[in-house]
Amino acid sequence: MAVKRKTEDELSMEEILAGQIPEAPEGYGPEFYGDEEDTSDIVESTEPENIQNHENAEQEAPQRDMSQLGMVGTKLTHNFNQHDPNARENDAKLAEAKGLSKLGENIKQNVEVRDGWIHMDKALLGERADFYPESWEFMIRPATVDAIRNWSTVDEENPLNVDDVFNEILKYCLAIKTPTGPQPWSQINSWDKFWFVLMIRAYTFKQGEQSISWNEDCVNCDAPVDFKLDFESLMYDLPDPEVMRYYDRESRTWMIDPAEYDLPDAPITLYNPTVEKDANIKAWMINKYQENRNAKVEGNFVKFLTWLAPKISKDQEIAKRQIKEYQMKYKSWDMDMFTFMEDVVKNIAVTPSTNISAICPSCGEEVTAQIRFPNGISDLFNVRRKSRKFGKK
Fold first, then answer.
1. Tens digits of per-residue pLDDT, 37-75?
2. By the 8 A CB rule, do 284 and 319 touch?
3. Is the pLDDT confidence value at 311 over 70?
4. What is the mean pLDDT of residues 244-254?
């Protein structure tokens, strides 16, 4: 017997939008959109040529039109496979000389602003590498001067704008290669989005040149501890080893059989949340709200949707049909199945922490601090000049 969720779960569309923004750094309010939001600027993102565009790799990540925000830079060229032999030979020599065959080996000594792509060592992801097929290869390139200029115009008070510019950086600076062809950059897991942004940042700037750091007192001995925000300092709550037996790495799916837990429901397949799905679900919600300002979406349903759907189309009409199908499945759950699925999602999700860690130089204990941006989030990709600043503002 199907049950109706508690009415308090039926949130207004405005509240849902505020709570379903794809991952962005902490410290931003719930204002997710303006009254005059225009969904026409949520369009398919353009992938780098010869890396993302492939006949078997359908692009599904909507991207806002940055021209409306004055954020359009020069279109970049990513045809690293089509470089002439001399260029490829020079790139190989540079990589060998700088020790950049795998990002991470010499990143602290050899980070320079350059145009080339390099392979990223998946080991840098730690255990989270297991949530991608073993054959996948990640490639990154440094943010260009144009991208950095665009970043400098980010509206820190608008989380949607911040998220858009994160996507802009990833679109131009991240590529995924597989034995069967390229995958869109937006196939990265949702929980890794900020990590990849910080990885690109590390490859863009020389070590220490653009450090985001601050100090706080150690809770154990009151000595000052230096905290630095980078890809190495991020922390995650990972699924327990005993639930990983349900996960298939190659298909990136979770196969859950409720019968193992004394429930009569059929086996269910869950899919890792991705940046692509986040963006298309967000576009569907904005469109639904604009069509009917009194529309309501159940908050719990949106939480489950990103796991239930293997993909959500960027086409609004197709997305409506897809989401309606998953909504019917969701509403067919009785209370026992609903509670079971809540436990499943809670246990299989990778949850980014809002804290980073450091070792106290005095007592040697590990201490944590809340992630923050002392000079604002725009400091992520702002270039600090060596010349004297004009004025005090």
1. 333 333 333 344 444 443 344 444 444 343 333 333 323
2. yes
3. yes
4. 97
